[in-house]
Request: fold
Amino acid sequence: MQASTSPSVRPRGSRAQAESLLTRLRLPVIGAPMFIISTPALVIAQCKAGIVGSIPALNARPKELLRDWIAEIKETLAAHDAAHPEAPAAPFAVNQIAHRTNERLDHDMRVIADAEVPIVIVSLAAPADIIGAVHGYGGLVLNDVVSARHARKCAEAGVDGLIAVCAGAGGHTGTQSPFALVPEIRQFWDGPLGLGGAIGTGRGIRAARILGADFAYIGTSFIVADEANAQEEYKDMVLAATAEDIVMSDKLTGVKANFLRPSLEAQGLTAAPSAGSQPGLKAFGEEGASAKAWRDVWSAGHGAGLVQQRAPVAALIETLRREYESAIG
Reply:
């Protein structure tokens, strides 16, 4: 991992373990967990192709399905490794929303601990009980962060890695430039560090590494994957989109997130970031607006303009790998 000359907040978990796990990747990428879109099929394909695949725990509905999904992922990847010992699958991750509004948190953490999920990606704060539970069976905790203050708080709590979610990320997004946030975090953190936000090419992955991150955090590029659980119209919309078609607002979920403008307008919702009143359109919180977050209003990041074609996950990752290897670094 790349170290800073400034005083560091040392990872309290096994840094050697984190480094070993991440070096198993054939490409330094974690597939970002995407609500609804990420299912075992996508995660398994990503891991087989050599990147970390991740799934939001909340995608498993009802909650009892989470145990079955994790078992399916583990069993399929174990079978792959037995058949292909020369190219073992990358580890997988489960994403947890650590917030009081997540009524499933305790249930899902019990399932995760029982299954000994290798990586847990925490969104928002990282409670000590989550860190303790995951470290208790030898797993790793990564925390996505949107500011240096947020990063330091999570680092001091004892996480094993940080993921800087910067401007342009799909779904819930940060607003800071990676050119500011990554170096700020590196002033005090020398553990594993990921970078997310509009990374959609192998050159982008290489740039993240040059900037000081250890791996890229990529979501939007995989929305169009054959294995992604996205509607056909959603995939077509991503393929047709450019960065100008992405609107950031906190009016749908209460947290800043990036959405595809055409999907907002298709639901009669305003595409204005301020959600101001417009003729014929309803603002997110306005009475009568019936769209459900993520299901009817679709998310993507500024990297949507870099998405060129539908393909299986393996083909998408191979393209990224070739671009990454050929990039000057």
